[in-house]
Write a structure and sequence with these properties.
The protein is of the alpha/beta class. The protein contains eight helices and seven strands. Strand 4, helix 4 and strand 5 form a beta-alpha-beta unit.
Length: 259
């Protein structure tokens, strides 16, 4: 008689009981990702500026049986990485997942758009994750995973998103180069590139019925994404099942990229 061996097909059990850091965890994709990782048994450090919303997320996670710690800070602060590292060491768990979800969405016609919006997008999408990753590098365990949230606009054009698209393109370029350096240490780096997702960040644009109609019309799947769908992809990339996925951009946009 052959014994049936029960196993964990996606390898989530191998990262349960470790720590994950999620920036931009107060809402949208970041909040959904934090909750999803916590459901798999990771202790999640919820990083962001809005302390009230972060504490709400912490409460929700704990009520669902998970564990989390709030790390309230401005990611553009030069000492942000060091403060996150201090909290990680207080938690005392091995760091296996680092997710850069924080983002801004400057939506304006290029003609007359203030250059400060480009600077702000670059600071949040590129400079801050760059510095935080550098600071936490020594804390990342072998076989750990770093996941950036990019955008399908790195390769698909959309009016009124020049600053956003340019900086998300920089994210993808950074991921490709960084992945080659860090895989030598057993650390995988990838990027999830969503299409338009219904989050507080896109709320202003989504309030325009004309904009919403145009968005739905250009998506072959005829709808916008839910944050939980992006969080599921991030969970996959964080899992040992994705251990051969290195330097990739996982596009999740309902078919826009393929059209």
């Amino acid at each position: 008689m052959v014994a049936v061996v029960r196993h964990d097909p996606l390898g989530y059990a191998r990262i349960a009981g470790t720590a994950a850091i999620v920036t931009g965890a107060s809402s949208g994709i970041g909040a959904a990702t934090a909750a999803t990782l916590a459901e798999q048994g990771l202790h999640v450090l919820l990083v962001g500026r809005d302390g009230e919303r972060l504490r709400e997320q912490e409460t929700n996670i704990r009520e669902d049986g998970g564990s989390a710690t709030v790390v309230q800070l401005d990611l553009n602060d030069p000492g942000a990485g060091a403060r996150i590292r201090t909290m990680l060491r207080r938690v005392g768990l091995r760091l296996t997942v680092l997710v850069h979800c924080a983002g801004v969405f400057p939506y304006a016609a290029f003609d007359g758009a203030p250059v400060e919006e480009l600077d702000r997008a670059f600071a949040v999408h590129v400079r801050s994750p760059y510095l935080i990753t550098q600071t936490l590098l020594a804390d990342l365990a072998a076989e750990s995973s770093i996941i950036f949230v990019g955008s399908n606009l790195s390769s698909v054009g959309l009016r009124n998103t020049v600053a956003y698209s340019a900086t998300k393109g920089a994210v993808e370029a950074m991921v490709r180069a960084l992945s080659l350096e860090l895989i030598e240490r057993g650390i995988r780096v990838n990027v999830v590139s969503p299409g338009t997702v219904l989050t507080p960040m896109t709320a202003d644009a989504a309030a325009d019925p004309v904009w919403m109609a145009e968005e739905r019309a250009r998506v072959p799947a005829a709808r916008l994404a839910d944050p939980s769908e992006i969080a599921a992809a991030i969970l996959y990339l964080a899992s040992p099942m994705a251990r051969f996925v290195v330097g990739e951009s996982l596009v999740i946009d309902g078919g826009v990229h393929a059209a």
